Amino acid sequence: MTGSPTRAAWFNCQAGVAGDMAMAALVDAGADTDQVAHTIAGLGVDGYALLFERVQRCGVGATWANVVVHHLDDHDQDDHSNETDHHVPHRPASEVLALLDAAELPARVRARARAVFERLAAVEGTVHGVDPAEVELHEVGSLDSIIDVVGVCAALESLDIDEVWCSPVAVGTGTVRSAHGSLPNPAPATIALLSGAHAPIVGLDTALEVATPTGAALMTTLAAGFGPVPSMATEAVGYGAGTADPTERANVVQVVVGVRAASGTHEAGTPVTLLEVNVDDVTGEVLAHAVTALLAAGAHDAWIAPIVMKKGRPAHTISVLCDPTAEASLRAVLLHETGSLGARATTLRRWPQRREMRTVAVDGHPVGVKVSGDRVKVEFDDAAAAADALGLPVRIVIERAVAAAHEVGATETSAAGAPLDP
């Protein structure tokens, strides 16, 4: 038997990412605007208009999503794009989650949107030193940000996207204004979200807030991985525009939509390149740094194995698994970091299983988990940090994180009437 094809979307965020840009990119790629608007209307809130317009950014035709908040109340005012710095009154995370729970939303839309705001609450709680259940969401709790998140999830549903992938994410420099005053750019929540997911980043010499907390939360929560576009049969490409139109770059998020073959013992699998070098004159510290650099550059995986070379010399093989499109760049990193005089490559095939990155709270501390079917794999660095803060053995934190992930999965299954990952 063979599995069903998997529909995937890869976001190119090397000019930055914001919620409205991601939603607009999906609409530009073919997501039905009526379906997106109808899904957002399921929130049951009034006082806004959602407009999609055709624009150009540095000569690139794109779609711009504009959420106009008509009636400003104690929670909301018009503050929308990846470059705004206006003050927006806060909204408790518990209120946002309650709004999603009460909304008339498709099960997968609700589950994805809820996961995004749970991750935001966990990270904001860590940044500000408060319990995630009590954290106040400022800019990311405004009505337009909620519409952005639900709109992205609705557009993914319209395109029937099963997997989300993401490129390295661009960030700016300098400072940005927020409800807390002037903050470093990228904002603390943004960089915490990206670093917590081990997402590779690219620095842009701009004071614009090109990566917003909402955009970072969407990518780090929904993306199965970061790096070059995965192998797929491409169906559509879309461009979502930011509000600003700088002359030095096209301020757009690109999305590529296509079909990936489902994994299974009778499927052809996905082509993958194995890069290797043998080294006998590199220290353990340099070897460890090389693996870190390779993963940051987009490798699927990297590892070290001890070997014995000619004349009985102890040595190591550094192996790198990567997408064929990233072979040249990762080979350069491998040679640069190890000083090896050459590398070799082998073409293989792999059958990656579908997985979803989530964040659960263990006694108020965020812990990342990968969920695939019934299996939950805890991010050890997150568990170790929580264990250190709580004064618990790391094995206990891992057990609690796994239990929390299973509890969330059971809740989503009950809400949907069937598992999210068939």
Report on the structure:
The chain contains eleven helices and 20 strands. Helix 4 packs across helix 5 (143-158) and helix 10 packs across helix 11. The protein has three domains: 6-260, no CATH class; 270-350, 2-Layer Sandwich (Alpha-Beta Plaits), CATH 3.30.70.1380; 356-416, no CATH class. A hairpin with a 2-residue loop joins strand 19 and strand 20. Strands 11-6-1-13-12 form a five-stranded mixed sheet. A four-stranded antiparallel sheet has the order 15-16-14-17, covered by helices on one side. Mean pLDDT is 84; it is low at 72-88 and 415-422. The chain is an alpha+beta fold and 422 residues long.
Descriptive tags:
Alpha-Beta Plaits; 5-stranded mixed β-sheet; 4-stranded antiparallel β-sheet; disordered C terminus
Write the SSE topology.
Layout: E1 6-12, H1 19-28, H2 33-41, E2 48-57, E3 60-69, E4 91-92, H3 93-102, H4 107-128, E5 136-137, H5 143-158, E6 163-166, E7 169-171, E8 175-178, E9 181-184, H6 188-196, E10 201-203, H7 213-222, E11 223-226, E12 233-241, E13 252-260, E14 270-279, H8 284-296, E15 301-308, E16 314-322, H9 327-338, E17 344-350, E18 356-362, E19 365-372, E20 375-378, H10 380-390, H11 394-416
Parallel strand pairs: 1-6, 6-11, 7-10
Antiparallel strand pairs: 1-13, 2-3, 4-5, 8-9, 12-13, 14-16, 14-17, 15-16, 18-19, 19-20
